[in-house]
Design brief:
Blueprint: H1 2-6, H2 19-29, H3 41-50, H4 70-75, H5 87-95
Length: about 100
């Protein structure tokens, strides 16, 4: 429902089985806690292979960030043309 309200028609992030839909569903079932992050499997494996002791997407405390590939970002709704998260994503997450 949130994706129908916010995501542009025919956008890749609208898929019911996509990453953003899964994140929104998980948040409905059990709200995400501060500090929890979404991490794609490929990013998690890359992080583990390169930096075994760091958390995926960890912030300043861990000083380690793994950058995702375009494919994973597209599934979450990232705007690769403008290289930014679109405003509809922020509105969707705010409504979640």
């Amino acid at each position: 429902e949130l994706l129908d309200q916010h995501a542009p028609p025919r956008h890749t992030a609208r898929a019911n089985t996509g990453s953003l839909a899964k994140l929104l569903t998980w948040n409905e079932e059990k709200p995400l806690q501060p500090g929890e992050v979404l991490c794609h499997q490929s990013d998690y494996i890359t992080m583990k292979l390169l930096h075994n002791k760091k958390k995926c997407g960890s912030g300043p405390q861990q000083k380690r960030v793994i950058r995702s590939d375009w494919h994973n970002c597209l599934k979450l709704g990232y705007d690769v043309q403008n290289l930014e998260w679109p405003s509809w994503i922020e509105a969707c997450l705010a409504d979640a």
